[in-house]
Design brief:
The structure is a homodimer. Chain A is an alpha/beta fold and about 400 residues long. The first copy, chain A, folds into 2 domains: about 150 residues, Creatinase/prolidase N-terminal domain (Creatine Amidinohydrolase, Chain A, domain 1, 3-Layer(aba) Sandwich), CATH 3.40.350.10; about 230 residues, Creatinase/methionine aminopeptidase superfamily (Creatine Amidinohydrolase). Helix content of chain A is about 35%, strand content about 20%. In chain A, the strands form 4 sheets. Chain A has a 6-stranded mixed β-sheet, sandwiched between helices. In chain A, strand 2 and strand 3 form a beta hairpin. In chain A, helix 4 packs across helix 5, helix 7 runs antiparallel to helix 8 and helix 9 runs antiparallel to helix 10.
Chain lengths: ~400, ~400
Amino acid sequence: MSASVLPFTNQEYERRLKKTRIAMETAGIDLLFLEDPSNMAWLTGYDGWSFYVHQGVLIFTDEDPIWWGRRQDANGAHRTVWMSDERVTFYPDHFVQSTERHPMQVLAELIRSKGYGAKRIGLELDNYYFSAKAYLTLQSELPDAAFVDATALVNWQRSVKSEEELVYIRKAARISEKIIDGALERAVPGMKKVDLVAEMYSDAIRGVEDAWGDYPAIVPLLPSGSDAAAPHLTWDGRELQSDAATFFEISGCYRRYHAPLCRTLYFGKPPEFMLEAEKALVEGLEAGLEVARAGNRACDIALALAAPLERAGIDRGARAGYPIGLSYPPDWGERTISIREGDETVLEPGMTFHFMPGLWMDDWGLEITESILIRENGAAETLCDRPRKLHIKD
Amino acid sequence: MSASVLPFTNQEYERRLKKTRIAMETAGIDLLFLEDPSNMAWLTGYDGWSFYVHQGVLIFTDEDPIWWGRRQDANGAHRTVWMSDERVTFYPDHFVQSTERHPMQVLAELIRSKGYGAKRIGLELDNYYFSAKAYLTLQSELPDAAFVDATALVNWQRSVKSEEELVYIRKAARISEKIIDGALERAVPGMKKVDLVAEMYSDAIRGVEDAWGDYPAIVPLLPSGSDAAAPHLTWDGRELQSDAATFFEISGCYRRYHAPLCRTLYFGKPPEFMLEAEKALVEGLEAGLEVARAGNRACDIALALAAPLERAGIDRGARAGYPIGLSYPPDWGERTISIREGDETVLEPGMTFHFMPGLWMDDWGLEITESILIRENGAAETLCDRPRKLHIKD
């Protein structure tokens, strides 16, 4: 039994596999092993919260991919991948988190049995889930193989989105708008932050009319006041306070596709420096959107953003965005292009980014961001349509 | 500025550090680098969703730990760790997900500058977040160092919980009860699963009177009918169906501490084989709890569980539990002991486990589980107090 309902057409999976095989050939890779759950899903459809144990897919140049994982998760693979049953293989449970044996011993045996024991094997060396020990075990079990660093090889193939993918990202964007609208509307001083987070999750998961909500790859981030200086603090049991800003960094998620959106809410009268920062930031966003065009480079967006910020005396010291799409925890970015000085990647139609110039200063923070799509012609399209400003409740 | 409100007393952090230093000495480790966010938090208090970039803590035998991470996350470290400001160090943002440079180059320089460039350095070789590339970069940057595999070295120190930790786990257990109660009460055939998940998140995050809810390390799992054969499928947009079982695998989370709990709900009249499985499973759980005593071994629980299941003709083919406590995604287990045949770890008072004998058969599933505490005397205490049975709604 292969999956009865796949999220994408067979043509779409064929397109992805073909792109990947061309990249393998260019890199001189005979066999590619992928442990990144996003890459696994993108190529095979596999979907499940099983990435806390070793698993992966093997990509061949001349036969269908093989899903490989823990025995109990093979049932999930049968239900979600497009390949036929015999392309799903597994290792016995006593290899799971064992102090005596390693699942990569089983994978190595599979690789040998397929005739690739002395071939060039691509591995995602800098990726969550593929550990140092996994690499060392493969190295020791396959002494005749040549290992090639294939970090982000598939991630790069994901940069330009297909029409089918864009349908999903747009649905995620509708959910993002709903989450932000709800947060801005409901938040009042004295409200417990957990009550607000609960409502934000409710919006995220119920979704919108034609799109149910999946879990986003990052939990909602909404630090307040001085804590908003720290971009990655999560919530706590305290109440929302007057005379403080809270930013909302969230993403709707539809079939694992994301469209992050951040807005900031101030209770009371914002200090002058924050209003000035808002003005410079919005100006920078608009300047960045204007140059976010096919043919320009990723760094052009960063440079356009930086000019008004510099004039306002603000040094962000951080990149201003990253590609988005299909993702699993812990990151909704694709880990390829960075919107920052020095990244000369040429923008192509169909690329999607979170244009994310968060300001995290010593004791305050401000986030106003956009998920964007690079178009054939003209400036970037913002995937969400919400006022680009600091929201204020007196 | 160090954190104004720490989740634990200074004595508790001292206890943990002391235990870890003894383990380092036993393993012949001069300097320990930890990238596991759970180990980072357990030893320093650090809390933030920043583990999608390289970061970690350095543990010395004779000076306070150093938090090391991305520049923008240093603000979060200042606000959450017990160490003083100068023990928080960072790398510049252009190292983040760069194709040209690696954060471990900066860490290596820090290690050299502290005088450990030719010492024995412990690394978590088989851990999420510490990648193969991180290891290879350290190896190349520190050619005179000797690297020691310190996988799970700190995780093992976490096995026996302190009184302070047990307070948190018991709070998490109250939240777990609330989530399960709500799910069992609200679920009816025809209800959209996302509406149910939204309510489950609401219960999880609002928490109970004296405990707000944090995000659990695993999202709620609640596959139905044939899909319940696959333990790690997440939800979708479909409606709950009659004549099918849905299991709820969830955990409340308080200050990152977990107490997972699973129950199963059947709409209609369950088939005879499922009632027989329920009977054997409950019998096995009771037999397991009875031998889950200080002085017995982890495998004794697995063997006690297996006997009634075997009599009912059920071969699970999977381990039956793992230690629980402080955790970050993607796993709420501690990845040390496994409740399974062959694991002869002796049980000690204060150890906590998710006793998790899920049944995932070819086209159905049944989960009835308990989070347990090993006591000084007598059988294990179940941390949640809910009927141990298959729930049925006619």
